[in-house]
Specification:
Length: 117
Amino acid sequence: MDRPLLNSTIAFVAFVLVVAVSAPTTQAASCASFGRVKSKNSNTPVTVIFVNKSGAYRSVMWIDFNGQPKNYAGLNPGQRFTVHTYLTHPWMFTDGPGNCKQMFFPRKGVSRVNITR
């Protein structure tokens, strides 16, 4: 491989990695806050795509204004669910029996959430 082609390839790979790392996604939040959080106002709308990358079934639960989980979707591995929600509305992902596996707290600029636990 000639030097200019090698340099171009390295630059391209570096660019792809930077784009992949800076994409607006988020990772797992702790379930320790469950029972202490609830939805607040509905002032700032956001659209979020939940993607199940856990390798197992996950329920998508909205935490309502009283702090109670409300089932919104069931996702098998690899499935996704788009929801129109608000910045002050927490979400929880559970396994089949309903055990909290991961939580998500919406943030500006985060449009995709990988369910990994």
